[in-house]
Amino acid sequence: MTSEWAVHGSRTIYTSPWVELDLVDVEPPGQPRYEHHLVKWAPVAATVVLDDQLRVLMMWRHRFATNTWNWEIPSGIVEDGEALEAAAAREVEEETGWRVDSVEPLAYNQPVGGMSNAEHHVFLAHGAEYIAPPVDTHEADRIEWIPLDRIQDMIDRREIVAGVAVTGLLQLLARRPTPSAPEAP
């Protein structure tokens, strides 16, 4: 028996350059058909920028939807035809004024898989060069380099709550090499 849902069609209820809301005619296995909401977003690219002092480039900002202040990593929507890596590097520069030369994949997630096609692609950049004040001046109240060894406590205290930031930072912390124990004589 298959557990894959049958999709019989869909209709768009709302669309904008940022988001689309569809009602999808679905049929779960052994269940009656019904209309399920599907929120469609463009992919998001984000970057954890780590310098040679093991500090992370972070932005302090307010999110009106949740009425919360928190630290975030640079992130944004991938533009049509834009490569994920290019979008990640562009967002760092636009939102912080720092330029990264290259990024490498760090994490991927689907934050709301049950009702959205949303995809978050998180990259890692080693080092950055400050080039100018940020172009997107509305993105952050402060931009700071925060020591990596403070990140876990900040997540625990809910000072970092954005899903894309938590995903990337926890992945970086999980991959961080641990000091080896001294060998026994």
UniProtKB/TrEMBL annotation:
Domain Nudix hydrolase stretches: 40-168
Keyword Hydrolase carried by entry: yes
GO molecular function terms attached to this record: hydrolase activity
A family per Pfam: NUDIX
Highest taxon above the source species: Bacteria
InterPro entries attached to this UniProt entry: Nudix_hydrolase (IPR020476), NUDIX_hydrolase-like_dom_sf (IPR015797), NUDIX_hydrolase_CS (IPR020084), NUDIX_hydrolase_dom (IPR000086)
Record has Hydrolase as a keyword: yes
Keyword vocabulary terms for this entry: Hydrolase
Similarity remark: Belongs to the Nudix hydrolase family.
Protein name, UniProt field: 8-oxo-dGTP pyrophosphatase MutT (NUDIX family)
Organism per entry: Kitasatospora gansuensis
